[in-house]
Write a structure and sequence with these properties.
The complex is a heterodimer. By secondary structure, chain A is an alpha/beta fold. Helix content of chain A is 35%, strand content 17%. Chain A has one domain: HprK N-terminal domain-like (Udp-n-acetylmuramoylalanyl-d-glutamate--2,6- Diaminopimelate Ligase, Chain: A, domain 1), CATH 3.40.1390.20. Chain A has a 6-stranded mixed beta sheet, with helices on both faces. In chain A, strand 3, helix 3 and strand 4 form a beta-alpha-beta unit. In chain A, helix 3 packs parallel to helix 4. Chain A is globular. Chain A starts with a helix and ends in a 12-residue tail after the last strand. In chain B, a hairpin with a 3-residue loop joins strand 4 and strand 5. Classes of the chains: A alpha/beta, B alpha+beta.
């Protein structure tokens, strides 16, 4: 689906990337732990997160994430906004909690960038 | 950044300075490295792996060390990234390598790191992973991504 539909489904506000709403997205990954995002998220997908600092933007850039969706009404810090603008990464904010955000997108056809991890990682 | 020539993709070396404790710029070196590799038109999966291992090691330097250097070396067979820091060092490498083990403080955790995943992530993506450390001096991490 187009990023524009993601915005509508989530009743989201576009903070950066008004010109990017025709971008196609198919998958998503949600986490607040950037090391997990680095381990599992795939290029071209959405990143759903409650973190708002510059490392979220850097992580999205490193992985070629299509767009960042900040959940629970979180908004990027001023530094994050400037960096996202520099690196050309769209940021949307939604008031839905992470679970609702994921569920609403999933029922409309967005799937996880992977369904399960191969092996246990970290302390289980 | 000095312009990168695609013909350099079999013979390139550059070092980047990393300042310890400065979270505002944490990741800036890895963004540069990724952009250099992209401009060289290297395969996307290799660019991605290199960027991830570079970023995790950059976060480690910023989080724990006084200062460090990330060295990028590209030849026809490999992309090599070395992360060399002056810092407290790692007393027990085996323990540090265990997924979930961390000595991170609150500031690092607020950034979305410090869950003890960094080194195992690097190991997951690098074809060669070589970690040595001297307590009180610093840490040397060599990561190689094979091109062939």
């Amino acid at each position: 689906m187009k990023l524009r539909e993601v915005k509508e489904i989530l009743d989201a506000e576009v903070i950066i990337g008004d010109d990017k709403l025709d971008m196609e997205v198919k998958t998503a990954f949600g986490a607040d732990l950037m090391s997990d995002v680095l381990a599992f998220a795939k290029a071209g997908g959405l990143l759903l997160t409650g973190l708002t600092n510059e490392q979220v933007i850097r992580t999205a850039d490193i992985l070629d994430i299509a767009a960042i969706i900040m959940v629970r009404g979180k908004r990027p810090t001023a530094e994050s906004m400037a960096l996202a603008r520099d690196l050309d990464i769209p940021i949307l904010t939604t008031k839905y909690i992470l679970f609702e955000t994921a569920g609403r997108l999933y029922t409309k056809g967005i799937v996880g960038c992977l369904d399960k991890v191969d092996a246990p990682s970290g302390h289980n | 950044m000095h312009p990168v020539d695609i013909t350099e993709k079999n013979n390139y070396q550059r070092s980047f300075y990393v300042e310890g404790g400065n979270f505002t710029y944490a990741g800036i070196v890895s963004t540069s490295i990724k952009s250099i590799l992209k401009k060289m038109d290297l395969p996307v999966d290799l660019v991605r792996k290199s960027a991830i291992v570079s970023y995790e090691s950059e976060i480690n330097i910023v989080s724990y060390a006084k200062k460090g250097v990330i060295k990028l070396t590209i030849d026809s067979r490999t992309i090599q990234i070395e992360a060399i820091d002056e810092g407290p060092g790692i007393p027990d490498i085996e323990l540090a390598m265990q997924a979930g083990y961390s000595t991170a403080d609150q500031r690092i955790r607020e950034m979305g790191f410090g869950a003890g995943m960094g080194l195992s992530n690097i190991k997951r993506y690098a074809d060669v992973f070589d970690l040595t450390s001297e307590v009180g001096k610093g840490t040397y991490l060599k990561m190689i991504i094979n091109r062939i």
